[in-house]
Batch of 2 targets.
Target 1
Amino acid sequence: MSTTPVLEVSGLEMHFPLRRSGLSVVRGRAAEAVRAVDGVNFTIERGESVGLVGESGCGKSTLGRCIVGLYKSTAGEVRLNGVPVVASKGQRNANPRVAQIIFQDPYSSLNPRMTVQQALMEALHVHKTVTRQDAERRCSELLDLVRLSSRVAEAYPRQLSGGQRQRVSIARALAVEPELLVADEPVSALDVSVQATVLNLLADLRKELGLTLLLIAHNMAVVRHVCDRTMVMYLGRIIETGPTERLIADPQHPYTRALLTAIPRLTPGHRSETPALLGDPPSPIRLPVGCRFNPRCSQVASICHETEPNLIFGAGEDADRAAACHFAWTDPVAPTTVSEAPSSQ
Ligand SMILES: Nc1ncnc2c1ncn2[C@@H]1O[C@H](COP(=O)(O)OP(=O)(O)OP(=O)(O)O)[C@@H](O)[C@H]1O
Ligand SMILES: [Mg+2]
């Protein structure tokens, strides 16, 4: 078996240019852009399950779409099984046999005029030449795999519950036996009561199929039970990464700590003094100078207004963890050089 990681993301940037007004062109202002993904580097090994968490608008979906080739990145590279992804407009993704993506709202990604069987057959035929008999057999295997009864095969999406529809979209993604499944908030549109069952299904599929998973979510509670490793994203960058349980037990970035306080039952008692997030994230068009978290950070120091911190790896048993904070791996209590937190947002 090859040792090439299933996914390698290096120096990835995805900037959406803003329309320039006539005045800004006359004044010679540089074109502005939404820096949705702004310098992201990571790899995912075969069989790993990795979480990607962060607030709304921090660039999670954009990153997911770049990975499967739905967006052509502004800079940097994505490699799947060592091969660079070439974005191809209009196609579901560029490398269907390697990576597939599922979305938050399975209703909008399933064709309302196709039965479940037709949707699965279409996925099988698009990617492989198979006989009708083989395709039918494979459809029933796929339904089995996602724990749906074979009776569902003749149903249309509108006749299914949200949880069932998400299972169908998982089955359709798995039809081509991808190595990497990018699941973009697969449970946030579902009733709380069915969220756990779909997450458990993803965890089971990972074991059964040796699937590599990138699970995108707003909060840590969703990724906790499924992901070995978690990456925290803030304004287009990965600002902390590490094995999920240790990241939760001992977060190094003030943003991660604040995210965790949003879920009280995940917060260890000794962190209860950590303040919740101050205000909304700044605009991804004009980022703060220095650390991009500085307007909201409760521990901001002068260096944080000067230099943007890179990911800093821990030492010893924390060598597999990293955080982009000048004070990572130091005393978690406020550093001595703390200055007044700016009052403006
Ligand atoms: N096609 C696009 N054109 C212009 N700007 C975009 C486009 N897609 C996303 N953006 C902007 O890029 C930033 C990141 O958006 P993205 O959807 O990736 O965030 P997200 O983390 O997935 O958010 P959510 O949790 O709400 O799904 C946002 O500021 C968003 O407005
Ligand atoms: Mg999103």
Note: Residues 7-17+32-253 form a domain with the Rossmann fold fold (CATH 3.40.50.300).
Target 2
Amino acid sequence: MTVKKNSLVNFIVGFFIAGIILFIIFGNSGKSNINTITPASYSEGKQIIDLTAKGGFSPNTITAKANVETILNVITNKTFDCSSSIRIPKLNISENLPLTGTTQIALGSYNSGEEIDGTCLMGMYNFKIKFI
Ligand SMILES: [Cu+2]
């Protein structure tokens, strides 16, 4: 009886370990284009951040340089969902984007550690820019 109990415990422990390993390997694979951290590009002393708006904002976490004038390019391409609207509360920005096109938003310059949060107008999709 004791032997049977031990093998059942071993089976359950093994099952959970296998599950955890599978989760580590495959758990985040479907979200790869949502949670990527992408540095901004730089041109003429300004940094330019490309943000794709379609089915949400991608990449949704962006690392940018502090103390540099920053331009946000919001790119829509047949964006018929709610991410065709953008809201950046910190800058009092709230606007509808064209269904297809690039909308430039001048964000200004920020100190290291500051963050800018944005959402769609209804607040269901979000993105974050971290200045370092
Ligand atoms: Cu929305």
Note: Residues 1-31 form one domain.
